[in-house]
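[step 3/7] fold_predict: job queued, chain A
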Amino acid sequence: MRVPLSWLREYAQVPANATAEDVMADLVKVGLEEEDVHRPGDELSGPIVVGQVLSIEKEEQSNGKTINWCQVRVVPEGTEQTLTGEGIDPSGVQGIICGAHNFVEGDKVVVTLPGAVLPGDFRITPRKTYGHISAGMIASSRELGIGEDHDGIIVLSTLGLDPELGSDVMELFGLYDQAAEINVTPDRGYCFSIRGVAREYALTTGTSFTDPAGTIELASAAAEGHPVRVEDSAPIYGVTGCSRFVAREVTGIDQDRPTPRWMASRLQLAGMRSISLVVDISNYVMLELGQPLHFYDADKVSGPIVVRRATPGEKLTTLDEKERALHVEDLLITDDTGAIGIAGVMGGASTEVSGSTTRVLVEAANFEPVSIARSRRRHKLPSEASKRFERGVDPLVADIAAQRAVDLLVELAGGTDTGKITDAGTPADPALITLPAGYASALIGVDYTDEQIISALEGIGGTVTAVTGGFEVIAPTWRPDLGSKEDLVEEVARIVGYDKIPATLPVAPPGRGLTRTQAQRRRVLQGLADAGLTEVLAYPFVSAAQNETFGSPVAGTGVDSVKLANPISSEYGLLRTSLLPGLLEIARRNHGRGFRDLALYEGGLVFLPREQVGSSYLPPLGIKPSDEVLADLDAGIPRQPWHVAAVLSGHEARAGVNYTPRAWDWADALDTARTVSGILGVQLEVSQGSHQAFHPGRTAALGVDGEIIGYAGELHPQLLKELDLPARTVAMEIDAEALMAAAPAVVVAEPLTTQPLATQDVALVVDQEVVAGQVLAALREGAGELLEDITLFDVYSGKGIEDGKKSLAFGLRFRAMDRTLTADEASEARAAAVAVAAERFGAVQR
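[step 4/7] structure written:
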């Protein structure tokens, strides 16, 4: 909202020397945000005066153009010119070249004299052109930066002006005025008017306020007005779409009358273009009082006006000449011919006021905000009117705004008030709110006195009555956002001053902090970062094919997914059941931009639907749902476990001098999963796995307590080809929530010892189908507590090994915490380990 200071001064005591910055600084104190400052005269300077054309000599040029050599008086006759220099006549008559032809001798015009500067740093100097010294320029509105009209120069008589020669045009056109632009939040719709802003300025400065609505004298009805019926028989959103409809009629409109310069200047400074006198009056009243108006050509309205909802298939051509298919929820203004406007949004072209209109029907109505908002969004028709209706308009100002418009049409457009008045509908009673004594102080933490509370609430327009135990407050009709005692307390805090609220840092209660789950998640994410991986965040939206590929180990089994009602893309209309699609998309995008060596990870939620998806019952607003309804809603929420996934592609490091980096392989993906489990203190169960997204022979299944919770290994070659990713790209994904549930309450680090290490190697021959991980687990179990670590370092089949067999070589590390192990003790532990492997898998030592 742009607020011209000259306009604001009519209703609030703004100091004469106050700037727009000063006004905004005061308004910020009552919660209005500052946006910008507008000064139309900032790009204008120097002598810009009123001149009179004394003579015009038309001279045709060789290029076919006809120019006017004009003699223009720029000071009153008998007054000496103060400017000096080339082409300056002390008598005040300037010779000026002009290419426009919309003026005649005797017209008063705007003259920019040498020394003036126009927008764009265009400096006026005497210059020789077309064989003459042109000492100045006769200006158009576009050249002054105050309008778009470039068809000709400004002829002041067409604006209804007859100023004295030599008058300052900057002052004449209000170009010394300035506007403060503020951001109006959705709950403060009344500040989309000079009336509302002036009230707020008076509150913040403690000065008096003159309500413009109180200065307008309402006329008594001399005759019955245009018939109006509100037929919203099936109210939507719980209320009737139109609570009040005021109509007035003015005849004898003179469309040739110009918009007064003072009105056009204010409208322009307020951010609106001057269009015609009738339209400008409508906009002026809306900005002044906050009540949107609509003017109809009364001769084009057929029969009574009916406010109703649209019927199926109904259409309307709006003022922008577009035919619109109407929705049955659209609230319409209609006559006998059908729809003539979308209520509160835009009028119809069939009843538009035109240059031939002489009889105007003025509409000032009050419409339900939600209905207007939905129609505006549905038809993509933002307007100044809908912006105000959506936030709530004072229902008691409709007749006042209509009267103000009628008065201006009579005064400025030469119209005649017919005295016909229609006032249909009954506005709802204002809210009555009880404010308990002491409630404001307890809620805000400031000891407000009764006088402060009463003064603040009466200042915003409320009616306050002291009752036993507190106050009863009738909220002002222009404040539909006030409906509870908390709203009133917020107003008290705002008006008394936010700076009066003490800044107290709350003391955190002891014994609190991160929950166990939060701490575990942080440790996992930090641990992966410490291991050299890069954390990324992917969108949780995937395609059906991606969920099918990564959501189930077996192809063709189908994956239940949560479908989005309003996806950002029809291709990605499901919520993810795996983190890998998003990670692989990020890896693919990085590869496409030249980043070849990647180690990416993400921790996030996946979405697994239950048997029930959603709920068939939506609880109404303002009513606490029953336990049964809450249980039903909860049952419809998908299960959302927290997963951790990683993708490794390329090499573990960059190539360097005398160094060839190692390519990531399946073992790195498995080690990344083990890093996660190690951080949480859980031993992963690793076995040969199978997953449709992974390589058939290079996939590990990851388990805890006998349950598979993830996979790690090399991705399927066909999948990598489709994604245009390097061969041998590896990945892992694990249900970290299952890991965290199995984690001990406290992860105890193994103690350090100074005792020496004893190493033993063993090679065992087993059948080809025996999984190496199972043999390793048997060796670990048989070796006992002296075993510190065991690793598989070789797998061999070929010469020297029987067909159908393979050799597995393991390295065993033994250590005692309290003594140096003897060779016999280490050998005995190794033998015990081999015995268990032999018993379970028929292993034979090589």
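[step 5/7] annotate
Residues 534 and 600 are 5 Å apart (CA to CA).
Residues 823-841 form the longest helix (19 residues).
exit 0
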